[in-house]
Amino acid sequence: MEPALEYVRRIEQGYNSGEQKWESTLATDLDDLELPTKLEEYKSTLKLVTIVNDNGYGGLRIIYGQLRPKHEGTEDSFYQPFYIRLRSNYQYRIGVT
């Protein structure tokens, strides 16, 4: 799976000490972007709320995801753009920076 451009922002501290809660939204404002068929069909983007360790290790733990209106996948001053590749599981300690 290729990495996708996501707009990411920190929401708040996580549930436990040393964690942060992040929100990431799949970008929909690029000219050459090809969204998955279902997202195009529903004219939507995908928003994920995740937990990340402060030290950057442990990957993203997805709390929930939801379809949002396509216009929410545009860059604004509250989000930072990052390319993110989602994996169902991993065997190596890949840091989040």
Strand order of the largest sheet: 4-3-2-1-5
What is the averaged pLDDT score? Answer: 86
Number of strands: 5
Strand content: 35-45%
Shape: globular
The helix-strand sequence is EEHEEE
Largest sheet: 5 strands, antiparallel
Strand pairing plus helix content: what structural class? Answer: mainly beta
List keywords for this structure.
single chain, 97 residues, mainly beta, five-stranded antiparallel beta sheet, 1 helix, 6% helix, globular
Tell me about this structure:
The chain has 97 residues and is mainly beta. The chain has one domain. It is built from one helix and five strands. The chain has one helix spanning 37-42; strands spanning 4-13, 19-26, 44-53, 61-69, 80-84. The longest helix is centred in the middle third of the chain and has 6 residues, at 37-42. The mean pLDDT is 86.
Describe the structure concisely for a colleague.
The chain contains one helix and five strands.
